[in-house]
Amino acid sequence: MLLALPLTAQAGPCLDNGYGSIDDPTGSVHVAPTGDDTAAGTEAAPVKTLGEALTRSRNTGKHIALHPGTWNAGLVLTSTDDGLTIAGCGSSESLLNGGSSAALIDASATDSLMLAGIGLQGGKNSLTLRDGAIATADEIGVNKAWQTGILIEDAGTELLLKNSKVERTREVAGKGAAILVDGGFLDLKGGTLTKNKGNTVELKGSADASLVLATISDSLYTSTSAGGHALVADSSSTFDIRDFSIEDTADAAILAPAANPAWLEDIAVDVPASTLEDEDHVQVDASATVINVTVNGTAI
After folding, report:
1. Cα(222)–Cα(135) distance, rounded to whole angstroms?
2. pTM for this structure?
3. Domain contains 39
4. Which of 51, 117, 143, 155 could be a cystine partner for 88, CB 3.0 to 4.6 Å?
5. Alpha-carbon distance 41 to 32, whole Å?
6. CATH (domain of 235)
């Protein structure tokens, strides 16, 4: 008679001995601060630097798995990196850290890039997507970018941002934005955007955005008293915002008096008393669809 032996869970590299967002631990180039760039790049023998991991991913078609740690380096990705996944143990465990002069991750013209379970801290822009890049970011953290947390630029550039945090964007020469979409498309599902200087979400240059099930709070002025809005859209841009909570903006919560078309549904705006009337916190074109939108509990 054969006895069934209990299965032993495989220990992973993350702090809880799991795998975080690393979906394929045996099919990735593993990176750890304690690694060695001459090592095999496996979970048990990770490489040390992001540059080495990127080189190996290009040569082998494998993805990049970040163990717990902080890397004071950025990545420049191109169409050579189409289909790449960079996954970590979580946005507070696997961190990329950068200075104020360049993007932390610059992904121009990439297709099907996936970022999951990593933290991006600093960089002039923490994440830059240009030239028709198409990317998905799931459960990432963007923190303390020097000017723009996420920049989505050029027609055809698209980002699906899911269940993520964008926090404490700083400013350079009075300019700041948590997410700036200039001609591209943002599909935001869930997450929080808080304590960012400038405008939290800014749309211009024929940008488009779908914003669902998230919270924007504490939209702050820059040092030049610019921004302070949760959402700004120019006359060439369009947006659809639903099931949203907006709290404590320094200025009008939604400033899009000429964006067309615009759809606003099930949005609760809760802001402190100011010189603005409640209805002035939501400024949209007369053609906009407005369903169940309240400011401090009063329907507009």
Report:
1. 29
2. 0.94
3. no
4. 117
5. 9
6. 2.160.20
